[in-house]
Specification:
8-stranded mixed beta sheet, alpha+beta, single chain
Length: 188
């Protein structure tokens, strides 16, 4: 069996897709397929980012972006990395692939990417603040991320969970295609 000698990649942290209607997405993945909704994030731009548990510590995530472009097969990918401009992609597209890396090696891997000449974002310590990113590492940070493109423009991420997610972290009502929240789909 082949092994990776460069990075201790432990599988896919999450796949992030773009939903046209988050309420419909929650109803399908959680209610029909049984995937627990583990984290909901209301983004500063009015969008949403929801995570579903797909087992083995892996997640399937969806963005809902206000004003996102309609699906465009063959043309659907982010134009910029997070923090560098418009990161939206079209409905039905794959926004990015996040690889799960060990938290204790995160900064080492960040430096290794830079040393290899890969253009990376700054490290983003995602938290529950209004901006969604902490200025400094703290107990509210739930995941650390760094983003970069592959040679064909696919957006990739190294991500590390920093703490267990609590049951109260999936609390935001999903928005339908018109951007209207549906509180009936929030579970207590």
């Amino acid at each position: 069996m082949a092994s990776n000698t460069e990075f201790d990649i432990r599988g896919v942290h999450h796949l992030a897709l773009v939903s046209k209607d988050m309420a419909r997405t929650v109803a399908f993945y959680r209610d029909l397929l049984g995937m627990p909704l583990t984290k909901t994030i209301s983004m500063p731009n009015g969008g949403q980012h929801f995570f579903f548990d797909i087992g083995n510590g892996d997640s399937l995530a969806f963005f809902w972006f206000p004003g996102a472009h309609a699906a465009a097969p063959g043309q659907s990918s982010p134009e910029n990395l997070p923090t560098r401009g418009d990161f939206r992609s079209a409905h039905g597209s794959m926004n990015h692939i996040a690889f799960n890396v060990p938290a204790e090696k995160f900064e080492e891997y960040y430096q290794r990417l830079k040393d290899k000449g890969i253009d990376v974002t700054r490290i983003l310590d995602h938290d529950n603040s209004p901006s969604g990113v902490a200025e400094t590492m703290n107990d509210d940070v739930y995941v650390r991320s760094v983003y970069f493109f592959d040679p064909d423009g696919a957006c990739l991420e190294f991500a590390s969970w920093t703490r267990p997610l609590g049951p109260d972290e999936a609390r935001d009502p999903p928005k339908n295609a018109d951007g209207v929240p549906d509180p009936s789909l929030v579970r207590a």
